[in-house]
Amino acid sequence: MDYPKTAVPTNIFTERGSNIVVINPGSANIRIGLAQHDTPFNIPHCISRRTSQLQKRNAQDQMLNSQVTTAQHMERERAYDIVASLLRIPFLDEEVANNSYPRKMGRVDAYPPQNNMKEPVFTWTDVFEKSVPHSSTTAEEDVPNEGDTSESPTLKESKIKVEPNSSERKYREYICGEEALRIPPTEPYCLRRPIRRGHLNVSQYYPTQQVLEDLHTIWEWILVEKLHIPHHERNMYSAILVIPETFDNREIKEMLSIVLRDLRFGSAVVHQEGLAAVFGNGLSTACIVNIGAQVTSVVCVEDGVVLPTTQISLRFGGEDISRCLLWTQRHHQTWPPIRTDALSKPVDLLLLNRLKESYCQIKEGEVEAVAMVHSYEGGMQPGSHKTRLTALNVPPMGLFYPMLLVPDVYPPPPRSWFNDYDDMLEDTWHMDFPGGGAYPMWESYPVFQTKPKKEDIIGLAEAITKSILLTGRIELQRKLFCSMQLIGGAALIYGLIPAVEERVLHAIPSHEAIDTVEVLQSRTNPAFVSWKGGAILGILDISREAWIHREDWIKNGIHIGSGRKHKDSCYLQAQAMCYLNS
To answer: Which family does it belong to (predicted)?
Structure first.
């Protein structure tokens, strides 16, 4: 398929992107960076706050159904046998019969090290404040108000003064990013994840105010420590929020308030992840399949405008594949006799994600690999276990057979929490575009009062097929089936593209006159496509008609019918595409 020629001179990116921060928040990771950069920072979206020993909990958000019921276990075993027949590998009962003798597994750190083994060195996070010499501390105190405006009050919370004669070490008040996942379980910290399964992680044990405060703290820490943008210069920067389609209107408004009111950006705009992905790869029409860590979403885009009726969300992603990998290895008795818990021990989830990224693939036949498995107990150094992992092509097939994954269940907050009559997304099908007239493609679509939210328990191939067929026009359907685009971290799994093409082709009903499907290769890292698209949209949007200024947001917010009401990024997308194609 020919890509539209949307090349932009490098100097435009350098000049216009130097003061634009692109923020793409996800359930597991946040991608953030300046628009002029090629790749963003990819940081675990979590925070650990210090607690008292009496109130210590490993994680704030473990209010979930982590126990697999008998019915779910039986469905998982049936799904395994279906996948095994497709991949031409033994069934579960056949494996049990063949594995009558235990596999050999040895503790590697009991043997002399080998030269060809290069494992990354693991270190626990230092939870104590770095000691500050008395002389430097005094010098800082002698200069009144100097440097006070370069840091926000939130960041200053974690900086505790060290008394001159005090030898007592002080705990850090909070720790963000990957360091938060590597805190020893014996330390008095509680891990919090503000976003889970594509929504704010609000529950009776994790109130809304605390969720928003944690989001603010994480983003503030990244801006200061990673991007080196001090607080007092923030008003000279603009922010682009690239938001997943799963978020509701109130959640988007809360994030905008954090960006404009708390982080003090001068202006901001919201773009949808699917739309940004189209621009990130230089396309105008595509079916975007975003396989994230905890949510998979499908949405179709035509000529730079999202089709709202085609959006489908699936409650599984890359982390579910990692947990399925652990279940598969334990079933085949290939996992070392160690206590691995991906839900209560964050460092174990890091291990499983690394094994999935390194060894899981989709191909016929038995897939095995010799891997290094680590055990993390208490605050001790991790133990290393060398073992042969098997059936490594089964867990990724859970994308097509969700019962194999058995996603954990997070009880959502009451739906009244999401009731919001100030729609963040303008009805773009009634807008007038420059050049005269409404955009013609919306004439045949019904008008929805709120953005549709669909969460189906179906496989990936069925979701893609259903989404494309909902467009209702055969010419567009044929174009979309040949313009599928896989994004997200799990899209990097080897063999996934041909598997999607084969299964989508078989999922199309026989009465549909469609016989060709194709997944387009991504021009950049699939995990960063949406972030890059957001950067391109921000740089190309010269007029900035839909951008919200800080003063307007704080004073007025959203007013229905006003000229400053936030407009959907569909409008900007169509504007840009009309300009580029003219």
So the answer is: Belongs to the actin family. ARP8 subfamily.
